[in-house]
Amino acid sequence: MARRAGLLTGRQIVQLKQCAFSVSARNMTENVRIETDTFGELKVPADRYYGAQTMRSVLNFPIGGTPERMPEPVIRAMGVLKKAAALVNKEYGLDARVADAISQAADDVISGKLYQEDHFPLVIWQTGSGTQTNMNVNEVISNRAIELLGGKLGSKDPVHPNDHVNKSQSSNDTFPTAIHIAVARELVENLKPGLKILYDALAAKSMEFQDIIKIGRTHTMDAVPLTLGQEFSGYVQQMAFAMDRIDAVLPRVYMLALGGTAVGTGLNTRVGFAEKTAAKIAELTKLPFVSAPNKFEALAARDAMVEVSGCLNTIATSIMKIANDIRFLGSGPRCGLGELMLPENEPGSSIMPGKVNPTQCESITMICAQVMGNNVAVTVGGSNGHFELNVFKPLIASNVLRSIRLLADGSRTFTANCVNGIQANRDRIAQIMNESLMLVTALNPHIGYDKAAKIAKTAHKEGTTLKASALKLGYLTEQQFAEWVRPENMLGPK
């Protein structure tokens, strides 16, 4: 069928883009080299290790620029799995010289050195399998290994990106493996320590405030007393559960897809390759990675990442509640609740002199909102695993990793710049508590609910105290009121 006049083929578009790149390269420098893939030749910068497939992706997906690049933890994780695969392939007969060069080149990826030197330019908005990032890593490791062996960059000799670096692998099993490695490491090495810092700070405040009796609030309205320490103990438990939730999802994250190759069957691998590479990855990372029990699930679904995102969403929900409570309890300083005094970190207004705002609470609640939004994207992406392969993996990986990083950094910052410096305003707390009508609840066992309600309603209507209302109505004596309405006796079961 003849093509409609004026329309370009995909290859013609790439050629035009390559011409534009060539002109740009000539304007800056003539230092380029020719790399090839199955589509033909492309010019790439001579000082970059990536090859034609990476360059083709750069040309085809100019979306978002540097901020949208594949997250560094994914690239580092790809280095880990490529090193592990090379070492295991060496056991299965891969030339030792080639395997060792791949392993050494992979170390430069694992360390982050090559990421920082701009050898991984691809954005997350590419093929949904992550194939182009897998090939980016293969090409970089291949050329770096060739350089280490004294060869010519771009020659694919003696180290080929597909035949050697990608040996016994497919993008369909390597990319999900990299996601799991990256997410596991970030959960264990970044988020859990960050949450522990917040947990410890809240626990310290709970102990510090354990003897301060205050009025409780339900539906944002006055309720019965509790201690400020008890109130903070709820926050402490939320953070304890947050860390427990991470531990609960990790077993599925530790299950790796590597060895499933294209559709889960393990085509072009060797018996035992999956188990050996998982063990090698565990050795390299010091984390208990294992081979996934079912590679079809490991390739076609991203349920473990949806589960992690749900865990992060729950943690964000917890932190949102804690930060909002602290923000409102610290409102004022003259016309709010004013029960807490928050650290004053910076000026709060460009027009109102002397105003100071709860900026740390605002920052971390925005983080929580972003994590909740990320979870929606991960949920949509996870639900789109069609047949034997999920093709929303870069989106899922980037959103989960961003949520982890935001919560980890936010927890540390919120702790250092807010929680550690919180002070109780004891005078204000006592004033509010003693004015509360809900202390009348202590009279229920003595005079009954209806009479107690009458006392509270009368006091509210006439603007008097509970004691004055009770004595006026004749329901009890002054001595009985003093004996029965004691906030310190209202803090737990009898």
Question: Can you tell me about this structure?
Answer:
This protein has 494 residues and is mainly alpha-helical. The protein has a two-stranded antiparallel ribbon with strand order 1-2. It is elongated, with a radius of gyration of 31 Å. The chain starts with 9 loop residues before the first helix and ends in a 10-residue tail after the last helix.
Span of the ends, CA to CA: 88 Å
Protein structure class: mainly alpha
How many runs of DSSP E, i.e. beta strands? 10
For this structure, the CATH topology of the largest domain is Fumarase C, Chain A, domain 2
CATH-assigned homologous superfamily of the largest domain: Fumarase/aspartase (Central domain)
Radius of gyration: 31 Å
The CATH architecture of the largest domain can be named as Up-down Bundle
Fraction in beta strands: 5-15%
GO cellular component, one term: mitochondrion
GO biological process, one term: malate metabolic process
Keywords: Lyase
Domain Fumarase C C-terminal: 439-491
